[in-house]
Amino acid sequence: MGLKKKNSELFVNTIGLLITLGIAFFLVIILIFILSDEPGKTIYYFLIGPFINKYYFGNMLNSAIPLIFTGLGIAVAFRASMFNLGGEGQVYAGGLAATVICLALPSAGALVGIFLAVLSAILVGGVIGGLSGFFKMKWDTDELISSFLFSAALILIINYFITGILNDPNSNLLTTPLISDKYFFLYIFPPSRLDISIIFALLTAILVFFFMFYSKWGYEMRMCGLNREFSRYGGINTAKYIVIPMFLSGGLHGLAGSISILGTYHMCLKGFSGGMGWNGIAVALIARNNPLAVIPAAIFFAYLEAGAKAAMLHSDITFEIAAVVQSTIFYLITAQALYNFVRYRKRVEV
Amino acid sequence: MNTFESSIPLIHNSVNIMTPFLLAAMGGLFTELSGMLNIALEGLMLFGAFFSVVFAYYTGSLFFGVLLGITVTMALSLVFGSITLYLKANVFITGLATNLFASGFTVVLAFHLFGNKGVILFQDLPELPKLTIPLLQKLPFIGDLFINHNIFVYLSWLVVIAAYLVIYKTPFGMHVRGTGLNARAIKSLGLNPRKYQLSAILISGFTCGLAGAVLTLNLGAFIPNMTSGRGWIALVVIYLGNRTPLGVLIASFIFGFAESFSNYAQGSINIPADFILAFPYLITVAALILHSMWKHYRVEAR
Amino acid sequence: MSYLEMRGIIRLYKESGVLANDKVDLSVEKNEIHAIVGENGAGKSTLMKILHGLERPDQGTITFRGREVSIANPLDADRLGIGMVHQHFQLIPQFTICENIVLGIEPKKYSIFFDREKARGRVMGIIKEYGFKIEPGLTVSQLTFGQMQLVEILKMLYRQADLLILDEPTSVLTEQEIKKLFTTLRNLKKIGKTVIIITHKLNEVKEISDRVTVMRKGKVAAVKKTAEVDRKELSRLMVGKSVLYDIERAELTRGLPVLELKEVTLRQKNQDMPLLDKLNLTVHASEIVGVAGVGGNGLAELEDVVTGLRRISSGEIYYNNNRITNSTIHELREQGLCYVPADRLYRGSSLRSSVKENMIITNSRNFQKAGIMSQKRVQDFADTLTAKYSIDGDTALPIGYLSGGNIQKVILARELEAKADFIVFSEPAWGLDIASSEFVYKKILQLREQGSAILLISSDLQEILTLADRVVVMYKGRIAADLANREITKEIIGEYMHGIRGDFEVK
Fold this sequence. Notes:
Chain A has 14 helices and no strands. With 350 residues, chain A is mainly alpha-helical.
């Protein structure tokens, strides 16, 4: 009897997700029929495009990498019932921190440089996120709004650095100078830009999963997230688990930024992180905050964008069609009524 | 001498720049009072911006452009509101969805209609009517503040007055505020809180549609994501304005002035524009933290 | 046919499995003040919510003024002339009195604007008509609880209610405010209104009501004319008959003091009466101190204070002679506190966490090495507890899927197994059947024999008499009696609980 209940919850979630995805794809296909002169071809490239050659496929996986990190970052916070809305700024700050370290250490050993760059990105992101947690712990300041505001201000300030004192005068892009090529991550799937950090991303997901479900701190953090009063009653230091998840969340976002710089951009381009924070929220929601499920969810999001890119290159639709699918998913992914409907139907059948 | 002369366009520009903030914030004020954090203002405004200029272009009429632009924006707000309230989705996530949808969908449509996803210029749009009273215009300050603006500026003031009247002087406004303050009490009276929340969202659709129209019809062009954070700033304006129409009006003017000043200062004073733009966010977060500190110690001190 | 007849009302809360109303009959005559009394959880509020359309009964009929009626929501009730004041006020604090009263049926000007003058006029009219003194322009947040109560009553009168329901109207009021309220109710009766008042304070029943319905465990225990019944009788009816447990309490000599409360006082903002008033209480090793009292007299606050969940306003608390006055529960747990809370669904357990996870919340450190949890040891522990306490349910599933009784067993298992030297039990046998209760009682007595100091807070007098060495009765935040558990009876405790005995004002 117990097992049946557990399975039925999984069933409800799966069916709910499938309905959500079904509606999203249905809408986008209708949209393509309306907008495209050659809808068959557009739909083909939209759905199959990312798989037709190594280049597209590798690039798709590459763009999933930062989403895995940001998705994990959001999931960690969510599990503790905290909401980190500053992802965009934290990714950007992490990217800038890594770039600055690399630029400041032109003659360090490759591994040392990479290590320091990544570490500084994690710390910078972590401190920014942790700050919102700290204010929440201390004075119950809403972390959702404070993290967003910190991030919004930060993005503008970082823009200033990138276009100002850190700007590369020799480039016609708004960017910092290129970092030394010894810090570049290894490409593992040429001709695509997929680099070795995908392995790092997968390991991080496993590590976060392990932390969350097999460590004492993960246990205490989840208990705080599920019922803070109960956790306090049980003798857990609940104040600690307001700051820590926000720090970890910010740290993972910072990490996402540094990995993007070292693996993909090799310089801190103005606005390179745009969307990575927001999409991380959707990825975590689709994955129901399970760190391992974040991996397919991130790849799925990257797939939507890769498909849209392929459709743009080979047909007459523009890349932004991906946002229409993504937003439909966003709309329905938290719709309780949808899941209750599935639940109800199931009960009627049985 | 020099500063005095340049102060005249400074105030005049502030009034122009504040209009979209003011309109979006006035609608957002309704959702805020009804107890919902409406982060969809950004997306709704973008929708209004795109559709009003497109309809104005096709109909050749400003009036129909604005009217149809607002209608489409309200339709989007209806989708946003129904999913949030009736499918019981998280208002925050659906707000994000609205922003994402608007930014994607407008570009998709722009590309389809005009084959271009950069700046789309609309030639031959009818000129925006302006109020010119040559005599009063010459008055220092008053003239800058009140005269020689386009019609939207005056419309936005009407919206402020209407919002004030609706919020404080009608039963509807009382119910909206009551919903935000104590939805259970509203329910215990047999009233339906969701009805008031949906109405508030539709009102925000209306004002954001208008706010968007201001952006594009002023410029005669559409640029992808041209709202660039104005919806978020509108949200900040609501908080800084202490959630009252008059407060929102003043806060909007301060923001308008700040932006106008930064445009002006870029030439003469050496403060980077990005810093000035970051300022409102920093002030708001400081205000937020101070507010929670105050609340915290007041509870503690009993 | 009476003015109001509720017949065979059944209401089952499916989520918790609690049968709140079990074939309840209620009849109220026109123009009477009818009291409904009963312990917490007796089903009084549920019955009244059904009458006001906030809940639907699973079965049963309501007849009002001779006609069978269906009340689907509060608007239906309003239309019939049935008004209700909830235990928690349904007011909008930022609005004025006048606005709160007319909300939902406002007079209009030019058919869209709120006509403030007309509203004020009408409200003033009502206020004058019934002889109240209050300025309708005041904001509700500035009012005392007594004035808020009056606003709620005015709300009903403005809606022309003839049958007024008041759910525990006196619980937040001062003595003077209660006197005023009762005068008001008597006046309303004089002009032909009918009043139903829910309470568990027996002196109030005697003072205000014409008839009284006593409820116990979802059923009607008795209906009496107030004049023909005394408080002792009512108290007996509310408490019910004894269940006999097959339990022997060994004679033990108590040990050293473990927990000491000295002049402990807890105050709340905006309230004159302290929630706890200079409590002095000592619990020794090998001793069970039972604390009895009616809800609202400081039991819940005592529970929070001795477990470090709430800071006291003044006084001192000692634990094994160490001062712990402002220690947090986190620190107390480290020193060996165990605690079974009355609120088992939100404090005692985390409904969305698995049974296993619920079992190790207090001692997760015992299952880890270098921060890594041993799943096997957790599982073994869970299996042991499940077998020992005969818990029915899969330990990997959320505890919320279990029945209330099984959830309570998980909480008890967790706290009893720690074998602490100081344990607080609040309502340990709630939701358990007799056999399980007996098992738990034996466990508690075993802990006593092993030398634990035990504080037992309970509204079940039988439980207290079965287990406790000493019985402490709380009344109005003070200790009304501290008695050795020899030759005392439920009736005696009941009289202290209701303020009939003791050095308190008795009428």
